[in-house]
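WARN retry 2 of 3 for item q-0093 after timeout on previous attempt; input resubmitted unchanged.
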Amino acid sequence: MGLTAQQLHQGLDAVAAREPGIARALGIAGYPKPLIRQRGYATLLRTIVGQQVSVASADSVWNKLEAALGEGCPVETLIAADFDTLRACGMSRQKQGYARSLAELVVSGELDFDNLPADDEAAIAELVRIKGIGRWSAEIYLLFAEGRTDIWPAGDLAVQAGIGRILGLELRPSEKETRALGEGWSPHRGSVAILTWHCYNNAAL
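OK item q-0093 returned
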């Protein structure tokens, strides 16, 4: 599961002690709520379902999949489902390919969600073997489903915009600049990432 409220508070307090912008943001916006997902296959499958569509559309597709395949869309049931069944649920040919890649890695035992490498970069490398799962999706999974404290998704536009607002930058920093900004906040960068999503639309900052 993801970072708890206590972990968020402790992490952000530690960073705020040495970064005035973070301290100011906490004073204005308060602490963010935990963002927690279940560990495992279903969370990554939902990530694939939600790619490049609205939250409402993703929820609709997921509900149809569960109605057709069963709760959590069991791996074996997904693999056995034919193209037309998945298509009727709203899954494009490309997303079906991604979903089957995920399911087959799980069934073969090549991907074990209970034993991902402890090293964050090694865990990301393991997850991006799944077709359709890039670095951002892997980072989000590790942050929300495993609660890894130092994940810093610098390629996320909302993280870039949020940290720019928090630090009072004139322009939204690039991914490279955002990654560099976060180096001094280790090992609490996951808490800062969650704060950026909490703050990026806050007009008071």
